[in-house]
Structures are given as C-alpha cells and as structure tokens.
Amino acid sequence: MLHTIIAQQTQYTLAYALIFAIVFLGFLVVCVPRPRKPAYRSPEEEKAAKKKSEIDKVRAKKKKARDKQNKKRQKARKKALKKQNQ
After folding, report:
1. Burial per residue of 13-26, b for 16 or more beta-carbon CB atoms within 10 angstroms, e otherwise
2. Spans of biased composition, class Basic and acidic residues (predicted)?
3. Mean pLDDT for the chain overall
C-alpha cells in the first residue's frame, strides 16, 4: 500500500515537473529576445551608406581643422590685445 502511494506521488511529481518545464520553455520563447540578423541591403543601399560615411568623415575632418584654425585666431587676437594694452 505504501509502495503504491509513493509510486503515485512520483507520477504526480513527474507530471507537475513536465508541466513546469513546458511552461518555462514557453516563457523563454516569448520573453527572451533573440538576436536579429542584419537586414539585407541592396548594392545601391550599400553604396549610399558608404558614400554617406565618407561624407561624414570629410565633414568631421573639416570641422576639426576649422576649430583648430579658430583657436589659432582667438589666441592671436588675445595676444594682439595684450600687446595693445601694454
């Protein structure tokens, strides 16, 4: 009798474990984000993206040079004002 009760409880435990496993796997499928593949780009889009990045690089380089030149001018103005005030 005791043996059949233990066997029956084991079956219930296994059934609940199976249900829990199925629910948990469903939770993982729904809630955990999967990595996405990058979208396929056509050759025209690739060229446009490359051209845009090159343009951005050139703009950044020009801005850096312009800022450097402005700093030089400001420094020269300060020096000239200092010389005038003396």
Report:
1. eeeeeeeeeeeeee
2. 42-58
3. 88
Which DSSP state fits 76? Answer: H
pLDDT at 4 over 80: no
The residue type of 34 is R
Report residue 41 CA to chain centroid gap. Answer: 19
**Using CA atoms, how far apart are residues 85 and 76, in angstroms rounded to an integer?**
14
> Please, what is the end-to-end C-alpha distance for the chain in angstroms?
112
The verdict on pTM exceeding 0.70 is no
Q: Which residue has the tokens 């629910």?
A: 23
* Site of tokens 């420094």: 75
Q: Which residues contact 41 (CB under 8 A, 6 or more apart)?
A: 49
